Amino acid sequence: QKFSLYEDLKVWENIRLFGGIYGMKEQAIAAKTDEILAELGFQSERQTFVKELPLGWKQKLAFSVSVFHEPRLVFLDEPTGGVDPITRRQFWELIYKATERGITVFVTTHYMDEAEYCDRVSIMVDGKIEALDTPANLKHQFHAANMDGVFHQLARKAK
């Protein structure tokens, strides 16, 4: 996994660095840093170097830094790959919180159960979008119990 984080900086230093890169004012950076540390439960990890964090913690921190400045749009490529189920669920909670603040989040994933968490899903086969709709509508259209069933039906068309 590659992250935008600086491994040789501490957790709080990474957060503040990106606030500065995004052009935020010092007062806003300080407040938002404390907010992120609290939201992630990282207060006791504040002084920890990023290289010492477990993979799932790095992923959550990287996402929090990416939405630090409240962008309108964020792209995430396989954001929960390689992490345990609890961390995956926690990561999705962070995504939900971001979308509640008006941030659009595009996620690529090979975990079809994660597609269930999305407002809309696009499934590509051989580089072409074969399906695009809500998870509920796709399951209805393909008479599938879950998104894995939808995917398997579409994947049969692959060359």
UniProtKB/TrEMBL annotation:
SUPFAM superfamilies (alphabetical): P-loop containing nucleoside triphosphate hydrolases
Protein name: ABC transporter ATP-binding protein
Organism field: termite gut metagenome
InterPro entries: ABC_transporter-like_ATP-bd, P-loop_NTPase
Keywords assigned by UniProt, alphabetized: ATP-binding, Hydrolase, Nucleotide-binding
Keyword Repeat recorded: no
Class in the EC hierarchy, top level: hydrolase
Gene Ontology molecular function: any one: ATP binding
Domain ABC transporter: 1-80
EC nos: 3.6.3.-
Pfam families: ABC_tran
